[in-house]
Amino acid sequence: MQQNxxxxxxxxxxxxxxxxxPNLQVPLFLVFMTIYTISVLENLxxxxxxxxxxxxxNPMYFFLSHLSFVDFCYTTVITPKLLHYLIxxxxxxSPKRCLAEFFFGCTCVITQTFMLAAMAYDRFxxxxxxxxxxxxxxxxxxALLIASTYLWGGLCSSTLTxxxxxxxxxxxxxxxxxxxxxxxxxxxACSDTTLSQLVCTVICTFNEICSLIIIIVSYVVIFVTVIxxxxxxxxxxAFSTCAPHLTAICFCHGTILLLYCVFESRSSLLLVKxxxxxxxxxIPMLNPLIYSLRNNDVKESVRKLIHIQGLSHSx
Length: 315
Description:
mainly alpha
C-alpha cells in the first residue's frame, strides 16, 4: 500500500475534455455556462420558493428542496472544472483533488437515486393511505429518510474513494474525459484495478436494484390502488401528481443505465462524455422545470416572488 502511494507521488492527471474539437471550445463554453447558470438559479430558486411559501411546507416539497440542493451541488462539482478546461490549456489536476471531486460527485449521485426512491414512497403513502399521510410521513420520519440518503451516499462514496486511493498512478496520465469519474480514474492506474472495479460493480448494482425496487413496488401499488377507485378522474389526478417524479426517475436511472450498461467501449468515448454532460448539467437544469410546470402552487409562488421583486425595484 505504501509503495503504491510512493509511486503515485508527483503524478498529475491531464484531462483531454473536448480538446479534439478545438473550434468548438468557445461555443461549448458559452452553451455550458448558460446551462450551468440557469441550473443554479433554478435550483436555488426552488429551495427559496419552498422555504418562503407555507403552502409548500409538506413532505413532498421537503424532499424536492433537498433534491434541488443535491442537483445544485452535483452540477457545481462538475461544471466549473469543465468550463475551466474549455478556456485554458491547463487541464491538469492532482490525484488527491481528483479523488476529492469524485467523492463529492459520487455522494451526490447515490444520494439522488435514493432520494427519488424516498419520494416514490412519499407518493405511495399519499395516494394509498391518505388518511394516515400526516402521521406516516411525519417531519421526524422525513428528516430521518433524508439523513439516511446523505449518510448512505457518503458511506458508499467513501468506500469507493478508499479503493481508488489504494491504487498507484505511475504511467501516462492522459485521461479522455472531463471529470473525475470512476472509470476515468481507473484508466490512469498502473496497478491492478480488479478489486476496485469489483467493489464499484457491487455497490452500484446494489444501489440501483434497491432504489428501483422501492420505486417500482411503490408505483405498482399506486396503480393498483387507483384502478380500484371508482371516482372519475382518479387516474388522471394520480398521474398528474406522479408524472413529474416519474419523469425525473426516467431521466436519472435511464441515463445511469445507459452510461454504465451500454456505452462502455472505447469507441463510444464521445458518447460517454455527452451522456455525462447530460447527467451532470442538463438533468439538474430540467428537474426544477419538471416539478414546477404542472404545479400551480409553485407557479403561484414564483409569480408572487416576481411581483414582490418588481414592487421593491419600483419603490
